[in-house]
Specification:
Layout lengths: L5 E2 L5 E8 L2 H9 L1 H4 L15 E6 L15 H6 L1 E11 L3 E6 L7 E10 L2 E9 L4 H23 L6 H17 L2
Length: 179
């Protein structure tokens, strides 16, 4: 399995991770606000089609690393909120929701989980990204967030979000230039 995201169609990135199971445990980290806040963002989520999704990002709380690159400094210090709507929910295998409220500018994120022995295959697909620049940034963001999820599920100290993001964003700029 490739650790890096791939371009999976027009304005779409896809990442895969093998995580320690069981599947219900990984599902809880996708859907329960206090667990999701440890690797991505807290906030309420109504687990039904049409339900509201509120993501409250606090990157400075994800690891011991507290500083962010200048372009993300305000986001890192003040946090960021994003709202969406659940498109599909089939516990504990499928969750899909819009990434933002603004009609025509909202993305779509889908999480697919498959039990594989003691492990779980998690596939994250982010669709409707506006351009290559956003594809690179979003791929880097998901890469860093999923690395922290791996660390949390494995009981390790979470890696730094921003240092990981900077490293992989540069790699994605190279990889996506060829695609």
């Amino acid at each position: 399995m490739n650790e890096y995201a791939t371009v999976a169609g027009s304005n779409t990135v896809r990442l895969e991770r093998t995580l320690p199971g069981p599947i219900e445990r990984v599902w809880a980290y996708l859907t329960e606000p206090e667990k999701r806040a440890k690797w991505l963002a807290g906030g309420a989520m109504q687990l039904r089609a049409g339900g509201r999704v509120e993501l409250e990002f606090r990157h400075a709380d994800l690891s011991a690393e507290k500083t962010a690159p200048d372009r993300y400094k305000k986001l890192n210090e003040e946090g960021h909120k994003l709202n969406g709507r659940v498109l599909a929910c089939d516990p504990p295998r499928l969750l899909s929701y819009t990434w933002g409220d603004e009609a025509g500018k909202d993305g779509e994120v889908t999480f697919e989980l498959t039990q594989r022995g003691a492990d779980v295959l998690l596939v994250v697909t982010h669709r409707r990204l506006p351009d290559r620049k956003q594809m690179i940034s979003v791929a880097g963001g998901w890469h860093a967030h999923l690395g922290i999820l791996e660390d949390v599920l494995d009981g390790r100290e979470p890696r730094g979000f921003w240092s990981t993001h900077a490293k992989v964003e540069a790699e994605y700029a190279k990889r996506f230039a060829a695609e």
